[in-house]
């Protein structure tokens, strides 16, 4: 849970996010709202900054850069890794269609798997994405994709398309007397924009694969990474009844991942003869990459709170709580979210500012959540902290709400259930009852997880090494995803693999 972060808007091109994926769907169930920042002023691509410090960035670029840092945990400080990534970027630039352009790459201190670019050549990649990649060719495909957006001026073209569609929408609104025809025209406009954006993503994939191949990287790195991206997304729990994960989102700004994989395979075949690496060369490249990321932080940074099984700890804010049995937690930028296996129950924890003079019962009744039962609202105490509770009803979900005053902040627990019973309510009450202040010893010993590269020994199996993973949920599946292994792939003695360690 990262206080003060907001969704990135404006000119960043998030080329590797999976639309509709993961536990973020829970926000729909829990009626969460996220504020979007206004779009930044237009920035010309004609003179991108060349490795300049932040103080020398143009104001508009600096503003967007600071927004991105605020939303993604700041810069991940690792000089060796930064040098490795920067060298990879320079190698790609030399092989690109626009070698005169200059790029500055920033590694973001976030476990989110994402990368994006500003039109001015500012490249961003999260440590979560670097950890998911298994060799330089995979990372080169990602960065080449983002360079493709810059080279093809996708942000500017998208803005031009948006302006044209908005003008057409305004004409329809001003002159059409047929409400149904007007609504249909607006829907078609949105669909055209989505299709335009999807095509840009496929074009950026193709440009990135070409750049990577000409730079001497394996062109199939894009295919492998897209497969890992999909597998990583599939690990995220999804609450039933919210959205069918298999249903394609035709208004998504990104194509469905299977389509991207098929497209990437077709493009990679064109370059295979120019980059015909032997298995030994590919293995050596993988080992070199793993050596560069050995020891890097994995998962959440403790300064932003982190999940350990069903328990969430936030050393900086000084509190902890434990989710009910069977829940899987995810620490997102806006809130801590949890889904019960099977999807029949969920939870959300976030933090808000409430005036000290306002009672918590009054806050519950203030309208921030709909359909609350006023008669259910009353003040309580939780582990010595002032609190209040109440219930609310939705169409498909019932809610138990708790608000707790902890220091100068108020923490909101929203528990949701499809089958609300006294037993379920008791489970929710027991969970919120675990909310407490962390001890000084707990805070001092709160350390991040990290990646550890180990050599596969004779007799080692996926299951055996997965048991060494410092994760409590789906160890085998997570080990396979982290190492780019398919459901039936086995391990080769002498090869190296990643595990998550304390």
Present the secondary structure layout.
Layout: E1 13-14, H1 26-29, H2 59-71, H3 79-95, E2 104-108, E3 115-117, E4 122-126, H4 127-132, H5 136-151, H6 154-175, H7 179-214, H8 221-234, H9 257-269, H10 279-293, E5 297-298, E6 306-308, E7 311-314, E8 319-322, E9 327-331, E10 336-340, E11 345-352, H11 360-364, E12 378-382, E13 385-393, E14 398-406, E15 409-417, H12 422-432, E16 436-437, H13 440-444, E17 449-455, H14 462-466, H15 475-482, E18 496-501
Parallel strand pairs: 2-4
Antiparallel strand pairs: 1-3, 3-4, 5-17, 6-7, 7-8, 8-16, 9-10, 10-11, 11-15, 12-13, 13-14, 14-15, 17-18
Helix pairs in contact: 3-5, 5-7, 5-8, 6-7, 7-9, 8-9
Give a description of the structure.
This protein is globular. The longest helix is centred in the middle third of the chain and has 36 residues, at 179-214. It has three domains: 13-278, no CATH class; 302-444, 3-Layer(aba) Sandwich (Protein Transport Mog1p, Chain A), CATH 3.40.1000; 448-501, Roll (Membrane-bound Lytic Murein Transglycosylase D, Chain A), CATH 3.10.350. The protein has helices at residues 26-29, 59-71, 79-95, 127-132, 136-151, 154-175, 179-214, 221-234, 257-269, 279-293, 360-364, 422-432, 440-444, 462-466, 475-482, and strands at residues 13-14, 104-108, 115-117, 122-126, 297-298, 306-308, 311-314, 319-322, 327-331, 336-340, 345-352, 378-382, 385-393, 398-406, 409-417, 436-437, 449-455, 496-501. It has 502 residues and is of the alpha+beta class. 38% of the residues lie in helices and 19% in strands. A hairpin with a 4-residue loop joins strand 3 and strand 4 (122-126). It contains 15 helices and 18 strands.
């Amino acid at each position: 849970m990262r206080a003060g972060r907001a969704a990135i808007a404006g000119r960043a091109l998030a080329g590797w996010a999976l639309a509709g994926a993961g536990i973020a769907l829970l926000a729909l169930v829990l009626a969460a709202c996220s504020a979007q920042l206004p779009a930044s002023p237009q920035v010309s691509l004609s003179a991108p900054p060349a490795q300049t410090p932040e103080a020398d960035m143009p104001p508009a670029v600096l503003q967007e850069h600071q927004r991105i840092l605020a939303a993604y945990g700041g810069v991940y400080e690792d000089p060796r890794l930064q040098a490795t990534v920067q060298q990879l970027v320079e190698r790609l630039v030399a092989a690109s269609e626009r070698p005169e352009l200059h790029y500055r790459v920033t590694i973001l201190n976030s476990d989110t798997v994402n990368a994006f670019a500003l039109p001015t050549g500012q490249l961003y990649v999260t440590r979560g994405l670097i950890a998911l990649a298994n060799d330089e060719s995979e990372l080169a495909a990602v960065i080449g994709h983002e360079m493709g957006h810059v080279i093809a001026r996708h942000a500017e073209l998208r803005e031009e398309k948006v302006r044209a569609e908005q003008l057409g929408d305004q004409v329809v609104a001003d002159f059409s007397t047929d409400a149904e025809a007007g609504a249909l025209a607006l829907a078609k406009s949105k669909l055209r924009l989505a299709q335009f954006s999807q095509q840009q993503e496929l074009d950026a994939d193709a440009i990135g694969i070409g750049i990577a191949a000409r730079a001497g990287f394996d062109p199939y790195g894009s295919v492998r990474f897209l497969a890992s991206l999909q597998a990583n997304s599939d690990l995220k729990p999804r609450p039933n009844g919210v959205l069918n994960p298999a249903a394609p989102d035709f208004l998504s700004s990104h194509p469905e991942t299977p389509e991207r994989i098929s497209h990437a395979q077709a493009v990679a075949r064109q370059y295979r003869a120019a980059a015909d690496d032997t298995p030994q060369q590919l293995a050596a490249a993988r080992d070199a990459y793993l050596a560069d990321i050995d020891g890097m932080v994995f998962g959440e940074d403790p300064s932003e709170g982190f999940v350990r099984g069903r328990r969430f700890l936030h050393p900086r804010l000084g509190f902890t709580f434990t989710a009910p049995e069977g829940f899987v937690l995810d620490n997102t930028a806006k809130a801590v979210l949890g889904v019960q296996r099977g999807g029949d129950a969920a939870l959300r924890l976030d933090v808000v500012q409430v005036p000290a003079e306002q009672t918590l019962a009054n806050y519950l009744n203030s309208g921030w959540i709909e359909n609350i039962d006023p008669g259910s609202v009353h003040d309580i105490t939780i582990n010595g902290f002032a609190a209040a509770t109440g219930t609310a009803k939705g169409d498909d979900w019932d809610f138990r709400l708790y608000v707790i005053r902890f220091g100068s902040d108020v923490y909101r627990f929203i528990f949701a259930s499809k089958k609300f019973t006294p037993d379920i309510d008791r489970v929710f009450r027991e969970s919120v009852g675990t909310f407490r202040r962390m001890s000084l010893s707990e805070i001092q010993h709160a350390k991040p997880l990290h990646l550890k590269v180990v050599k596969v020994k004779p007799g080692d199996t996926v299951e055996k090494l997965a048991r060494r993973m410092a994760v409590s949920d789906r160890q085998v599946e997570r080990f396979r995803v982290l190492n780019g292994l398919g459901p039936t792939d086995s391990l080769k003695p002498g090869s190296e693999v990643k595990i998550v360690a304390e």
